Structure formats: structure tokens, C-alpha cells
Amino acid sequence: MELLSIIHGHGLVAAFIFLLVNLSPSSSLPQGNGLPYMTSNVKEVLGKSFDYIIVGGGTAGCPLAATLSEKFSVLLIERGGSPYENPMLLDKKYFGFPFLQTDEFSSVAQRFISRDGVPNLRGRILGGTSTINAGFYSRASADFIKRVGWDEKLVKEAYEWAESKVVFKPLLTKWNSAVKSGLLEAGILPYNGFSWDHIAGTKFGGTLFDANRKRHISADLLERGNSSNIVVLLNATVKNIVFRSDDEGKKSIVRGIRFIKSNGSINQTYESYLTQPENSSPRGDVILSAGAIGSPQILLLSGIGPKGHLGNFSIPLLLDLKGVGQDMQDNPGITLILRAKPEYRLPESPQVVGIAKDFKFVVEGFVLPVSFNATTLMRISIKLAFPESKGKLELNNTDPRQNPVVLFNYLAEEKDLRECVQMVQLVKKVARSRSIARFLGAKPLINVTSNANELRNFCRKNVRTYYHFHGGCSIGSVIDNDYKVIGVKGLRVIDGSTLSESPGTNPMATLLMLGRYQGIKILTEREDASAFGNQQHP
């Protein structure tokens, strides 16, 4: 009744805000067609064992859970709630609204400010950032796939597995058509039409929004799994990983996880465990898929990380792994707002992208809300795809719900600053194109200098995130090539924290693929190990 009165009295936007901030955890949640069982009742998983425990029901975690469930039991634990309880979250009409309403513990987007002073966001909802982002879908480049050493055939199959369920070919809107023409006018050639692939020039890519403007998310991929093998625990935040001792008395084998209610006391903890095989059969893993902020944070809270830093918080050292939290990167972005005054216009996610200067620059157009009164601003944004500047992540305290301290060191390297100047020069051309002016009905008011030295200062002052941050659990320093954490047994990391760069236009497509890809690799590994064990014990 309260929601109905809000709709009648204040309209749908006010109702959206109400749902955004007032969704209370419930023990019985809407399941949807083919979705696995979901609950916020921690007692339903307390003390229970699963073949695999996946921490983070985001862009990589959901396809990973679906894949492993084909053969094994899976607990998928997500610190946020269910988007299926709030259909407005999945309506394109409200794209960008979650960015406006953030709080410390319950909003679907969690705000943080890096030590650089740049505001940023993390997803805190089943589906992760695929539930709140712009929905633009584009694969990694062929060169990236080769460099990281992935199986190209399996990569292609994993991309297609996700695409067939949650990705669509868009019909270009008038705004995106104007952006496309503006990109071409600025010399971002050739025009490639529609493509899944990351190729130089201007193209339009896939989208998570279908023809009815409904968003599809990574959590939809759970329908592809064996739903009877998956339990999704919502509104629960992992505090640390639980270990047991090996034969030499060293605590190096993962036993399970310790977690809290996301809206509860940090001192009231609960545990779930990995299934212990009765014989020499291979065992499962706890897999961190909590993202580039969450996964290194959980490792540090579990005693895995630089010894000195953990000592500052009186966290018992399990493993002195100096790479945890290192090599953090975010792609520096510059945004030009086309009109100073907000106007009443529906939000629009980007459908078109310009990929320029040997893949170094990525340009898109957005129409984003600036308030809950349905006013928006049109903007052209550009990011630097391969920054050299790197930073680090460290704990701020021992509460897993709170953000750690992150430094990205935007534009710290001279090369990044020089390329930012080039970015501004290019994005100005797009913003001032005839096509954009025709769409606006007037020339955009863009007061950006042409002086190179002044542009350097402009970059330093106006650098923004593109929300594509990554790193913190790098291959070689934290995990091995099988995504297993070095020095312990039964622990993997599979998410954006393992990436050395943001692949493609943005990392979403590749993270969806990565969850499926690594899931298949793990299933194959288990099959091979079981076959070997049968040979050893006929």
C-alpha cells in the first residue's frame, strides 16, 4: 500500500527511489523462470557444505556458477539483493538512476572516492555492474586473446554462450545515430556497421537491452545452469576465508567462508564449507569473483597479502603475498557536456563506439540523468585504453562492507598525460561536429582551450573514471595461469581483478566470457583428475 500511495502521489520516479533504498532482505524471493533458489536467510546455508563456493554474484560469478552447476553443487553468495524484486532496475527508462542514490551499506551502487579524489562506483546487486552499467557489449580484441594465452576456440564458444542469452543487436536511436556521424566526421574510420568484435574505426555493438527496452543481466545466465544444484545467498558479505591445516600443520587448505549479514553486526558471523571428499577424489574451491575491489580486499582480510600491511590491522598472517592489491589501474576518462543546462529527456545508453589511434582511444556518447526529476545531460566521453600509470589497494579497516583505500594514480606517467591531451583534442572534434550540432539544434557550448600546456592542466583537473578499473590479483604475482591463488589450496580468483588491462571497449563481455570459460576449464580439470584417480585405483 505504501508503494501504491507513492506512485499516485509522486509518480514512478519517486517509486523507483523508494524501491532502490527500501528493499528489505526477505527469506523468500521471487525466483523467475528457471532461476535457482534464492534466499537472504543465512540459516539456510549455515554449516552446510557445497562442492564450490563462489563469492560475488556479478558479471563473472553468475556464468561461472551456472557452468559449475552442470556437475556440482554451488553456493553463490552475493552481498547485495535481487534485481528481480525491482523491475524498474531492469527498465532502460531508468538507466543511470542507481548512480544517483548511493549509501554505505544497502544501495545497489556503492560509491567510493579514490585517493586521487575521483568519485567511482561498485555494483552491489545480483548481476553486479551488468545490472547498472550502460549495457554496451563488445568482445576483446583478437590480439588480447592471444597475449593472455587463452584457447581461442573455447573463448569464442564462451562468448557465444553468453550472447545467445543476454545480448542483442540494437536499433540505433536518433541520438546514437548523431554520435555515429560525429565520430565519422572526426575521422574515426572506417565505418564497420554492427560487430561484436573490437576493431578500429566506428561501429555499433551489442547491448544488454532488448527491443522492449528491458535490461538482461549476468544473473539471467543462472537459468543456463542446473538450478537444483545452485543456492544463491543474497544480502550476505564475506568477512574472510576459513582455512584448515595440512599434514604439516600449516594452515594452507581452504575449508570454507565466514560471512555476515550485509545489514547486520560485523561480530555476528556465519560459516559455510566446501564438501570434503571421502577418498582421494579431487575437491572443489572457494572462488573469489567479488571484483577488482572486493577480491583483493577479501584476500587481505583473510591474511593473504603484504605482511607489514596486514600487521597494521592485527590480521594474522597466513601467506606473505606481496602482489595482493598491487597493479591497480583505472582507465582515465574525459567527458565534455554538450549543454550546460539539464533538460527533460530520457536517458540513453551508448550503442555506438569510436576506436581510434591504434586502439588507444575509445569514444562514446551518453545521455545520463543528473537528478530524480527526470532531467538529463548529453555528453561525449573518451577513455585511454592502455594507461601506464598504476596504483594500489589497501585496507581501510576490517569491516568487509566498507570500501578499502584505492589509489589509481591517474595520469601519473608522462605518457598518459600526453595521450590525455590528444584525447581532449579528439573528443572536441566529435562534440563540435555538424551532426551533433544538428541533433542539438545549435552548436554545443564547449569552452576547452587549444593550448597544449593548458590542456595538460585541463586533463589533471577533469580526469574522471570510466568505471573499468581492474587489477589487484594479477596473474603471476597472486594467481597462477589456472587462476589458483599461489601458495594455498582450494582458492581461485576469477574476475576483473585478474586483468592487466580493460579488454575491448569495456570489460563486461570478456568477464561474462571468463566466467563460462574458466568454469569449463575447471570441469575439464576435474574430469581429467577423476580419470587419473580411477586409473591409479582400479
Automatic annotation (TrEMBL):
<dbReference type="InterPro" id="IPR007867">
    <property type="entry name" value="GMC_OxRtase_C"/>
</dbReference>
<feature type="binding site">
    <location>
        <position position="238"/>
    </location>
    <ligand>
        <name>FAD</name>
    </ligand>
</feature>
<keyword id="KW-0285">Flavoprotein</keyword>
<dbReference type="GO" id="GO:0050660">
    <property type="term" value="F:flavin adenine dinucleotide binding"/>
</dbReference>
<dbReference type="InterPro" id="IPR036188">
    <property type="entry name" value="FAD/NAD-bd_sf"/>
</dbReference>
<feature type="binding site">
    <location>
        <position position="466"/>
    </location>
    <ligand>
        <name>substrate</name>
    </ligand>
</feature>
<keyword id="KW-0274">FAD</keyword>
<feature type="domain" description="Glucose-methanol-choline oxidoreductase N-terminal">
    <location>
        <begin position="291"/>
        <end position="305"/>
    </location>
</feature>
<feature type="binding site">
    <location>
        <position position="496"/>
    </location>
    <ligand>
        <name>FAD</name>
    </ligand>
</feature>
<feature type="disulfide bond">
    <location>
        <begin position="420"/>
        <end position="459"/>
    </location>
</feature>
<feature type="signal peptide">
    <location>
        <begin position="1"/>
        <end position="28"/>
    </location>
</feature>
<comment type="similarity">
    <text>Belongs to the GMC oxidoreductase family.</text>
</comment>
<dbReference type="InterPro" id="IPR051871">
    <property type="entry name" value="GMC_Oxidoreductase-Related"/>
</dbReference>
<dbReference type="Pfam" id="PF00732">
    <property type="entry name" value="GMC_oxred_N"/>
</dbReference>
<feature type="binding site">
    <location>
        <position position="129"/>
    </location>
    <ligand>
        <name>FAD</name>
    </ligand>
</feature>
<protein>
    <recommendedName>
        <fullName>Glucose-methanol-choline oxidoreductase N-terminal domain-containing protein</fullName>
    </recommendedName>
</protein>
<keyword id="KW-1015">Disulfide bond</keyword>
<keyword id="KW-0732">Signal</keyword>
<dbReference type="GO" id="GO:0016614">
    <property type="term" value="F:oxidoreductase activity, acting on CH-OH group of donors"/>
</dbReference>
<dbReference type="InterPro" id="IPR000172">
    <property type="entry name" value="GMC_OxRdtase_N"/>
</dbReference>
<dbReference type="Pfam" id="PF05199">
    <property type="entry name" value="GMC_oxred_C"/>
</dbReference>
<dbReference type="InterPro" id="IPR012132">
    <property type="entry name" value="GMC_OxRdtase"/>
</dbReference>
